[in-house]
Design goal:
Order of helices and strands: EEEEEEEEEE
Radius of gyration: 15 Å
Number of strands: 10
Largest sheet: 5 strands, antiparallel
Oligomer: single chain
Distance between the termini: 26 Å
Shape: globular
Number of helices: 0
Strand order of the largest sheet: 5-4-7-2-10
Length: 171
C-alpha cells in the first residue's frame, strides 16, 4: 500500500485536500480507492466528486462504499457497484450522489470498480467530498475535507487480511 501506485504529486491525499486543481491518480485502474479512518464514528450518506483535469476515460463510473468501526469488525457494505455519472467536463463537480447509511462508523473504504474507459489502466479524480448527515463533534459543516487522512488501496484483489495503517482525524 502507501502511495506507490501514484505519481508523487498525485497521491490519494489529493482527493481530499479541498482543491480542484490537484488530483488523485491511481495506476491501479479499476478497483482503486482509499480508506478513511476517523477518531470517532460519523455518519455520511452522500458525496460529490470533482473530475480530474484530463483524460475523461479515467473517471470512475461506479462506487463501492464499505464501513466499520475498527479492524476487529467486519466490513459492512453500504453501497456496491453503485453507478455514478460524472460530467464530461474537466475539473467539474458532480451532482450530489446519495447512498443509504443509517450507521455511524469510524472507518470508510471507497473503491471505484469501473471506469469510463474499460481499457484504462488509471483512475483519477480531483476531489472526493463526503457530505455528513449530521454535525461532527459539534462542528457545523456542509462538507468535510479529510486531507492527508486516507489510505490508498491499489491492490484490486484487496483482502481484509491486508489492513493498511490507520490514519486518524482529531476533532
Amino acid at each position: 500500500y502507501g502511495d506507490g501506485g501514484s505519481p508523487t504529486s498525485e497521491t490519494a491525499s489529493k482527493a481530499l485536500d479541498g482543491s480542484k486543481t490537484s488530483k488523485y491518480l491511481s495506476t491501479g485502474g479499476k478497483n482503486s480507492g482509499f480508506r478513511i479512518t476517523l477518531n470517532q464514528p460519523s455518519n455520511f450518506n452522500a458525496f460529490t466528486i470533482i473530475t480530474g483535469n484530463d483524460a475523461a476515460g479515467r473517471d470512475p463510473t461506479s462506487v463501492t462504499i464499505r464501513a466499520r468501526n475498527d479492524s476487529s469488525d467486519s466490513w459492512r457494505t453500504l453501497t456496491e457497484n453503485q453507478p455514478i455519472s460524472l460530467p464530461l467536463g474537466r475539473s467539474i463537480e458532480s451532482a450530489t450522489i446519495n447512498f443509504n447509511n443509517s450507521g455511524y462508523y469510524s472507518q470508510y473504504e471507497i473503491t471505484f470498480p469501473t471506469l469510463r474507459s474499460e481499457s484504462s489502466t488509471m483512475m483519477q479524480l480531483a476531489e472526493f467530498k463526503f457530505e455528513p448527515k449530521a454535525n461532527l463533534a459539534g462542528i457545523d459543516t456542509s462538507r468535510l475535507y479529510l486531507s492527508n487522512l486516507i489510505q490508498p488501496l491499489f491492490d484490486p484483489n484487496f483482502k481484509d487480511g491486508k489492513i493498511p495503517q490507520d490514519l486518524t482525524l482529531s476533532l
